[in-house]
Design brief:
The protein contains 15 helices and ten strands. It is α/β, with parallel strands linked by helices. It has a domain of about 120 residues: Rossmann fold (3-Layer(aba) Sandwich). The strands form three sheets. Strands 2-1-3-4 form a four-stranded parallel sheet. Strand 3, helix 5 and strand 4 form a beta-alpha-beta unit. Helix 6 crosses helix 12 and helix 7 runs antiparallel to helix 8. The chain is globular and about 60 Å long. The chain starts with 9 loop residues before the first strand and ends with a helix. Bound molecules: iron/sulfur cluster. The site of iron/sulfur cluster (SF4) has 10 residues, from helix 4.
Length: about 325
């Protein structure tokens, strides 16, 4: 049965936002994407949204967000209208008609500081949080984010963490699994255990670019073929890896909602510092972000394998085969 999020203290998120504000208001953020993809049968949620009228050619994440909001009885959502996905605008209007309170949030495409500051302040006022409480929440989250950076370092520098483990903790930092204290306790225990491990031996080091995958077992498949993802681009961005005392600066440095320049800089740095051999660019069927594949290919110096996922489920045979061929090609290239 779907977990009930009926209690008005739960606030659904359609995408990563300054989550400090939600905690400062004494509320509980819930990343609707994570609830969708960790459901027992996420495909059923997609089908449910299609029965409600969402057409085949709408991205499955949008359908998943629609279905979990209603099936979990979420009363309030923060919907990111600017800097994320144009589908969210219409999705939010449908949800409003179903009785859901929608609080809009916009990232400015041109990274205008004043605009973003007003957006964060607007969110703060909508939820009746004080700036003091926002900064108190930020201080706690920054401590946990520091530990996520250590997890990332253990992934690419010490080689003791798998690509999926890295993905899992970083992707969860959009809402800290709704409970930062429990999240931090689990993370501490995980880091203690990981530090005792022997370094892993995969030959090929990969960067994963694009939105988080809807496909299961992608990371495991890569590792079975002798590769490992040591850089999860967007998931790492969710953990706000650039420390700054000013909350507006933190979300200006977050690369995902703005033009691709910031992303390219971030990826180039990862290529250098993490000794990457190749890149996987994951694209979601029916997503406008697929178009960025052109710019990534034109701008980055490493071989790129572009994968596409449509509906939730395990990776299919053809995708597994393409991954194997890509990793073999990188091995040949590396051995000269
Ligand atoms: S994958 Fe693309 S189309 Fe789907 S919700 Fe995300 S941004 Fe929108």
């Amino acid at each position: 049965m779907a977990r009930s999020l009926k209690n008005p203290s739960f606030v659904g998120l359609t995408s990563t936002i300054p989550v400090e504000v939600i905690f400062a208001a004494g509320l509980t953020p819930v990343d609707l994407n994570n609830i969708f993809i960790s459901a027992d049968v996420p495909e059923q949620l997609v089908r449910g949204a299609e029965s409600a009228g969402f057409s085949h050619n709408i991205c499955a994440w949008i359908k998943g967000i629609y279905a979990v909001t209603l099936s979990h009885h979420v009363k309030t959502i923060v919907a990111v209208f600017g800097g994320d996905c144009s589908h969210t605008v219409a999705l939010a209007e449908v949800l409003e008609r179903r009785g859901v309170r929608v609080i809009p949030f916009h990232y400015p495409l041109d990274r205008d500081r004043k605009f973003l500051e007003l957006q964060i302040d607007g969110l703060r006022r909508s939820l009746s949080a004080t700036w003091d409480d926002v900064y108190q929440a930020k201080s706690k989250l920054d401590r946990i984010r520091g530990k996520l950076q250590e997890l990332d370092r253990l992934t690419y520098r010490e080689d003791v963490i798998s690509g999926w483990e890295n993905h899992f903790y970083l992707v969860s930092s959009s809402d800290f699994n709704s409970d930062p204290d429990v999240f931090e306790g689990n993370l501490d225990a995980f880091l203690d255990e990981a530090r005792q491990r022997e370094p892993r031996g995969e030959e090929i080091r990969l960067g994963y670019l694009g939105v988080p995958p809807i496909l299961g077992e992608l990371y495991e498949t890569v590792e079975n073929f002798g590769g490992r993802v040591v850089f999860n681009e967007t998931q790492r961005q969710f953990s706000m890896p650039y420390r700054d005392d000013d909350i507006v600066n933190v979300y200006l440095k977050y690369t995902y909602p703005y033009d691709i320049g910031g992303r390219l800089e971030d990826i180039r740095e990862a290529i250098r510092t993490r000794s990457l051999d190749g890149l996987i660019h994951y694209t979601q069927t029916f997503c406008f972000r697929q178009i960025y594949d052109i710019i990534l290919r034109e701008s980055l110096p490493l071989p790129i394998l572009t994968l596409e996922g449509d509906r939730p489920g395990k990776i299919d045979g053809r995708t597994a085969f393409r991954l194997e061929a890509f990793i073999e090609m990188l091995k040949d290239k590396k051995s000269g």
